[in-house]
Fold this sequence. Notes:
This protein is α+β, with helices and mostly antiparallel strands. The protein has helices at 17-21, 47-51; strands at residues 3-7, 27-30, 33-36, 57-61. It has a single domain (3-61), classed as Alpha-Beta Plaits, CATH 3.30.70.20. It contains 2 helices and 4 strands; from the N terminus they run E-H-E-E-H-E.
Amino acid sequence: MGFNPIVDQGKCKGCEECVDVCPVEVFEMQNEKSVPVNADDCLGCESCVEVCEEGAITVEET
């Protein structure tokens, strides 16, 4: 079982909090928005969900 982090680009304000908090560097900033470029590495800890004030990130089990 794995995890799939999803960023709602319409809600993302580009604060980079998720980039900073992720222990396995899943996220990267592209065009001032967060993008899960290493989604396969996601641990499912949901630290990114907790720090996202915009509610732009969800993590689904795969």
